[in-house]
Every structure is written in C-alpha cells, then in structure tokens.
Amino acid sequence: MFQHLLVPVDGSDLSANAADRAIAFAKETGAQITFFFAKPEYPLAFYGEGALIDPTTPDRFAEMAEEQAREILSEAEANAVAQGVRVTSLSLTNGAPWESIIAAAQQVGADLIFMASHGRRGISGLLLGSETQKVLTHSKIPVLVYR
C-alpha cells in the first residue's frame, strides 16, 4: 500500500477538502503526508502606455509568497497532527505548478500524489487547462484525484 503521500494545497476550499480526505486516507493506511505548496515566480511586468506598474519588488514578492506558503501549509499540518498522522511540508517556486508538484513528489520520495481537481470538462477544460490533468499526463508516480 502507499506509504508516503504528496498532497498539493493552494488555500482553496477544494484543496482543503482534498487535504482532509488525504489525512483520513493516510490515517487508515498508516502513511505519512508531505503537504506541498507551489509558490509562483515573480511575474514579468510589461511597461507601456496604459500599463499598470506593480511597485512590488522581486524580493518582496518572494517574501509574500513564502508567507502565504507557511500559512497554508501550517494549517494543513495542524489538521494532520490533530489526527495523529506523520506530516512534513515543502514549497518550491516554479512558473508551472504541475512541474513543481511532480518535482516535489520525486524529491520527497512520495509513492502517491493525492490532489484535488476543479472538475472542468469539455471546452472549458480544454481551453483553461488543468494542473491536475498535466500532473496526470506527465507523472510517473501514481496520482489519486479527489473531487
């Protein structure tokens, strides 16, 4: 059975529900969890007539992303600890969250990625894309999608 779950969280209700279910799954199976937060890269600004200028520096942006990661990860960790599940957390910066999810799973030696899906189907799923779909397509590690 699975021994180490990587559970991406982003602060949404959907990912919080998936994290809660992952905690219950880990408790039932005796697995440990690594909660993961994909920090965004500093956005490139386009300057020109009518462009908005963002006064945030790259360093300040990185600090804000780290604060957000700590807040989201600490809440998920506290829920797991309260249920008696072994837990760690990790955050990485990457422009493509799906790539960082797979990299994190490999880095921590996870044998299952347990993640939420927004459930977009049809044209909206095709046009908007899906981080979950990209993980499913590219991961060599099994992925459990919770909806």
UniProtKB/TrEMBL annotation:
Source species, domain of life: Bacteria
Domain UspA: 1-147
InterPro entries the UniProt entry points to: Rossmann-like_a/b/a_fold, Universal_stress_UspA, UspA
Gene3D superfamilies attached to this UniProt entry: HUPs
Family: Belongs to the universal stress protein A family.
Name of this chain's protein: Sulfate transporter
Source species of the chain: Rugosibacter aromaticivorans
